[in-house]
Amino acid sequence: MRKVSFAEFGGPDVLELLDAEEPHAGPGQVRIAVRAAGVNPVDWRLREGQVLGAHPLELPAGLGLDAAGVVDEVGEGVGGVGVGDPVFGEGFATYADFAVLSAWARMPEGLTFEEAAGYPSVVETALRVIREVGVRPGQTLLVSGASGGVGSAVLQIARDRGIPVIGTAGAANQDYLRDLGAVPTTYGEGWVERVRRLGHVDAALDLAGSGVIRELVELTGDPRRVVSIADLGAPEYGVRFSGVAGSVPDALAEAVGLIARGRLHIPVEKAYPLADAAAAHIDSQAGHTRGRRVLIV
Questions:
Q1: C-alpha–C-alpha distance, residues 234 and 210, integer Å
Q2: Which of 129, 185, 228, 234 is most buried, judged by most C-beta within 10 A?
Q3: Distance CA 172, CA 185 (A)
């Protein structure tokens, strides 16, 4: 089978599409024939050698956490799913023709494989950081870097829970944030004052890692009311860095419910052939994403 792999840490050029041995489902796992794989910032951070405390790697290694596809092998002890079922979920080394998933759910009606591949890690992360920052219905949440995959999920989950959101993004994504229920504003010079003019901020999320932790603490008045998923230096300001996943099965179940009720939709900004994983990483690192990027297998 084909698999995207890398033998040394570095830039996108270290990624190679190689022939590899097929993985097999162990106890409590399923194997899928991958149709699409999600591209997440954690993928290129791993490729660069970052966040190894949370995601230790032994090189050479594959990449990819999220995927959607068709079950073709069921591990011992697995029930409720069978060969031929379309599922989406989370595993490892999903940039490949076949991947083993440790958490999955049946694909909701109406989703394509490309769309479904963009949900698992994104929704788990969104649910986790909303929980960790402790924001409650009626309180205002500030989301820095709100137009990407996690931001798109946070805005919609917050709207479903009655949590008002102020979101920062580039000028081109202001209408996108507004459509998702947020009060939008641009980042860049003067952004703190623009946020202040929009109202009091009770809690804040840093989803982009753009060096705004100090300002987020200033706006909320309490480092305990700020959570980052993108700035490894956040703890220097007393801010939690959230990098370890919670329950993916629970997150997938909630995602299915939100999608079924029409309360969650994360668009695919661009889909790339598996051979173009390096290009997908370059675009992901550049930011300004609206929704998700995925690989087509």
A1: 11
A2: 228
A3: 11
Backbone angles phi, psi at 234, to 5 degrees: -55, -40
The set of residues, in sequence order, having a beta carbon less than 8 Å from that of 54 and lying 6+ positions away, is: 243, 244
Q: Decide if pLDDT at 136 tops 90.
A: yes
Cα–Cα dist 282/11, whole Å: 9
> Are 206 and 229 in contact, with CB atoms under 8 Å apart?
yes
76 pLDDT more than 80: yes
Question: How are beta strands 292-296 and 268-273 bridged, if at all?
Answer: parallel
Residue type, 71: V
Q: Which of 82, 81, 83 has the alpha carbon at shortest distance from 72?
A: 83
Give the C-alpha separation, 226 to 115, whole Å. Answer: 30
Rounded Cα distance, 271 and 117, in Å = 11
For the question of whether the overall pTM of this predicted structure is more than 0.85, the answer is: yes
Residue 80's pLDDT is what? Answer: 94
Q: Which helix (H) or strand (E) holds 159?
A: helix 149-161
Please classify residue 58 by burial: count the beta carbons closer than 10 Å to its beta carbon, then call 0-12 exposed, 13-18 middle and 19+ buried: exposed
Contact 194, 186 (CB under 8 A): yes
Closest by Cα among 185, 199, 196 to 218: 196
Rounded Cα–Cα distance for residues 70 and 107 (Å): 10
